[in-house]
Write a structure and sequence with these properties.
five-stranded parallel β-sheet, globular, two-stranded parallel sheet, alpha/beta, Rossmann fold
């Protein structure tokens, strides 16, 4: 049914619940899981702006914040990938920069994803509250089925 799944995660508790659903899909014939995390460029810039540096320092701090977020995400993704591989899944990782819902939609199209399994809410970041949840936007715009997990 859903041979190739996209699993977007922000490493929140709800994302962890979604991972448990992904694991259960093995029994239904899922073979490949694309573990996906997007480094939200809006948050990187907001974090850097809060530091209040001059324009020369700003670029350096943006790079430092980005690298730290990427390092943390890579570590988290490695653990998830190992968990899924241990269950017999073929696992691919994606770690783009961008706006999460857009990157999720684009990845699903490009990679011919059969379904997206996503947590219902993320970490409650300010950008999500102001702009609407990533999962809501994915449900509205995805061309494939979306399983939203509470």
């Amino acid at each position: 049914m859903f041979t190739k799944i996209l699993y977007p995660t922000d490493f929140s508790e709800k994302s962890r619940h979604a991972l448990e659903v992904v694991k259960k899909l093995k029994e239904a014939g899922t073979k490949t899981v694309v573990v996906f995390h997007c480094i939200d460029i809006r948050e990187v810039n907001t974090m850097a702006e809060m530091e209040g540096f001059s324009s020369l320092q700003y670029e350096n701090i943006v790079d430092e914040i980005h690298e730290e977020l990427k390092r943390k995400a890579t570590k988290e993704m490695t653990g998830i990938t190992k968990e899924l591989r241990d269950l017999g899944f073929i696992v691919e990782e994606r770690l783009p920069d961008g706006i999460p819902f857009r990157e999720i939609i684009e990845t699903a199209k490009k990679e011919k994803i059969d379904a997206i399994v996503i947590g219902s809410t993320g970490k409650g970041l300010l950008s999500e509250m102001l702009l609407g949840s990533t999962s809501e936007k994915v449900v509205r715009e995805a061309e494939c089925p979306v399983i939203v997990v509470k």
